[in-house]
Amino acid sequence: MMAKVAINKRGDGVYTASYVLPASHQPDLGSAKNIAIKVTAVNTDQDQRVALGGFLFSQSGAQRNGEYRDRLSDGSVVVAAKVDVAVAGRYHLAGVLASALGEPLSLSQNAVHLKPGSHWVDLRFYGLILREAGVSGPYTLSSVTLTTAGAMPNALGPVVTAAHVTKPYLNVQFTDNPFARPDLLGAATRLEGLVKR
Q1: Which of 77, 102, 81 lies closest to 173 in space, CA to CA?
Q2: Distances (CA, A) of 170 to 72, 97, 127
Q3: What's the CA gap between 157 and 143, in Å, rounded?
Q4: Which of 27, 95, 168, 173 has the fewest beta carbons closer than 10 A?
Q5: Which residues lie across from 8 on neighbouring strands?
């Protein structure tokens, strides 16, 4: 598909352009498309320049509605995000728990199958990480993403920063038990082996 677009010049040698992708070329709700772009420009001396690029255009099948809640569970912090689902499918929620100073402390992710409607999706931050960091709350949930993960390419949602501030937990409230998930520890060992090759 070829299209001409309006180009703005500010007199500084930098040009910008905008283009609205027609509905006929947009992906269905809950999916994504790789869009390739070719830009051809001709200057006043009739010199032609060509650039190629691309991007992923997503239409997520679910959205976070901005509601969050947190609790202490088995010595870990659990932050739940409310998700409004339009299309049934597999969704991947991820986020980072940071200190009050913005220092990232722990990453959590959760993949779930959801039906249309509103759902609470948990992110569990294992307490031993927070205990050993020696940092008490409140914590900030940041870098939150919700991805529609049922097909490739995944439909990526926006990244939300400073999404939620937790209660003021004390780091001594968290578990001091080692992480005991053999399946995940085994996967981590395999990944470390691949990195070292």
Answers
A1: 77
A2: 11, 14, 11
A3: 11
A4: 168
A5: 16
Return the amino acid letter for 192. E
Order of strands, sheet of 76-85, starting from the edge strand that comes earlier in the sequence: 62-73, 76-85, 117-125
pLDDT in tens, the chain (197 residues): 555 555 656 666 677 777 777 787 777 777 777 788 888 877 778 888 888 888 777 788 889 999 999 999 999 999 999 999 999 999 999 999 999 999 999 999 999 999 999 999 999 999 999 999 999 999 999 999 999 987 788 888 889 999 999 999 999 999 998 877 777 777 778 878 777 76
Q: Which long-range contacts (CB under 8 A, 24 or more apart) does 149-153 make?
A: 149/89, 149/90, 149/91, 149/92, 149/111, 150/30, 150/61, 150/89, 150/90, 151/31, 153/32, 153/33, 153/34, 153/56
**What's the CA gap between 4 and 16, in Å, rounded?**
13
Q: State the Cα–Cα distance between residues 152 and 170, nearest whole angstrom.
A: 41
CA distance 130 to 134: 7
